[in-house]
Specification:
Blueprint (H helix, E strand, L loop, with lengths): L1 H21 L2 H6 L4 H5 L9 E2 L32 E8 L2 E5 L1 E6 L4 E8 L6 E5 L3 E6 L2 E5 L5 E9 L5 E8 L1 E2 L5 E2 L2 E2 L19 E5 L7 E3 L2 E2 L13 E3 L3 H16 L8 E4 L4 H6 L14 E5 L19 H14 L11 E5 L8 E5 L5 E4 L3
Parallel strand pairs: 4-10, 20-22
Antiparallel strand pairs: 1-22, 2-3, 2-5, 5-8, 6-9, 7-8, 9-10, 11-14, 12-13, 14-17, 15-16, 18-19, 19-21, 20-21
This protein binds calcium ion (CA) (2 copies) and zinc ion (ZN).
Length: 372
């Protein structure tokens, strides 16, 4: 119990540090002159396996038959400015973005606090559903309704008129059923890997219908991008974690700071049910994809379904995936990054798919190079 308490405090402290540093990004970039060199380092220097147990993620090998699932978002993001004048702190996360999501159980209470990088001003909050109580000038408690659904909790800065939407997804409670409303989930392991809480069976699943498939869960990502590719009719079910969304948005911001043309990321693989993970021949029973905090991604601004030439050498190959891999591996040394630490996998191209990078937020540092 003591260890768990300490790690929660460490996560919260890391999140606040991230918040403070987030407003001062130039300084961090300036501190890392070797970043480019690392990204270009020879393949041989990339660890083929660091800290790996039985928890490596294998690559996904198929495309979804439904073009709306996986890949890039469809349509235009409702968010013109991803960052507002304040951040929101909720459930051990701090989001500096004007759109973010949280995932709760029916009746769950969530405390939401506004954190300012500039001068605090007068705030107001409203929620379409559930109960919202004001606890202080900058703090509220929202009690989720009893039925599955999604609700925007809007916090607005009265002075500037800027507002932030926290999309609260009320999940369907999950107790290990192999199928939910005809949708195959499969079997989660009863014993968490190394007894780590991040490997506990998910307590709830997000219900995905044709109606909410296109919901924007953060400024640059849509719910449909993370849905498992096993197919079937709707409703379907999904596990997604806020920390992954924060990490993906951070990766996009950092790539743009390096002048990489990246409007969004192609999500090759987000959530995988244990059923699907076994069906595609994965040998691990503890893939982070089944716990909702992993994504296999690449930059595909030109829309050809393969990694773009983001290092500008005229070819699209492993060196482009190395730009993302190297950037994250390098950030690992920074204290603010510890909340985002986790698995990092480099996947070379094969005849069917281009190179890609796996990232997750499991907490402990794991590195690997996958088969092509
Ligand atoms: Ca491309
Ligand atoms: Ca290239
Ligand atoms: Zn992966």
């Amino acid at each position: 119990m003591i260890a768990v308490g300490v790690s929660v405090i460490a996560v919260a402290a890391g999140a606040l540090l991230w918040l403070r540093l987030a407003g001062n990004q130039e300084a961090i970039v300036a501190d890392r002159p070797q970043a480019e060199a690392v990204a270009q380092s020879p393949l041989a220097e990339i660890a083929t396996a660091v800290g790996l147990g039985e928890d490596q993620c294998d690559r996904d090998a198929v495309r979804s038959e439904d073009a709306r699932i996986g890949g890039k978002p469809h349509g235009k993001s409702p968010v013109a400015n991803p960052r507002g004048g304040f951040s929101l702190k909720f459930k051990d996360e701090v989001s500096p973005y004007t759109l973010m999501s949280t995932f709760v159980l029916p009746g769950e209470r969530v405390e939401i606090e506004a954190v300012f990088t500039d001068q605090p001003t007068e705030l107001e909050a409203k929620a379409e559903e559930g109960q919202l109580e004001r606890l202080a000038a900058d703090r509220w408690r929202w009690t989720a309704p009893d039925v599955a659904g999604q609700h925007c909790i809007q916090v607005r800065d009265v002075g500037s008129g800027k507002s932030t939407c926290l999309n609260a997804f009320v999940m369907v409670p999950y107790h290990g059923e192999p199928t939910i409303h005809g949708y195959a989930i499969g079997h989660y392991q009863e014993k968490p890997l190394h007894d780590m809480p991040s490997y506990l069976m998910p307590a709830g699943l997000i219900e995905v219908t044709e109606k909410n498939l296109g919901t924007w869960v953060s400024p640059h990502f849509q719910l449909a991008q993370f849905l498992c590719k096993q197919g079937g009719g709707f409703p379907q079910y999904l596990v997604l974690r806020t920390r992954l969304l924060l990490k993906l948005e951070m990766v996009l911001e950092r790539l743009r700071e390096r002048d990489v043309d990246a409007d969004e990321l192609f999500v090759m693989s987000g959530y995988r049910t244990p059923h699907y993970n076994a069906a595609i021949g994965n040998t691990t029973k503890y893939s982070r994809h089944s716990y909702g905090d992993a994504a296999d991604v690449f930059v595909d601004n030109d829309g050809n379904g393969r990694m773009d030439d983001i290092n500008g050498d005229g070819k699209s190959d492993l060196a482009d995936a190395l730009v993302i891999y190297g950037m994250l591996d390098e950030l690992s040394a920074d204290s603010w990054y510890q909340q985002f630490e986790g698995g990092l996998g480099l996947y070379p191209p094969n005849p069917r798919f281009g190179p890609m990078v796996h990232m997750d937020t499991r907490g402990n540092k794991v590195r690997w190079k996958g088969a092509g």
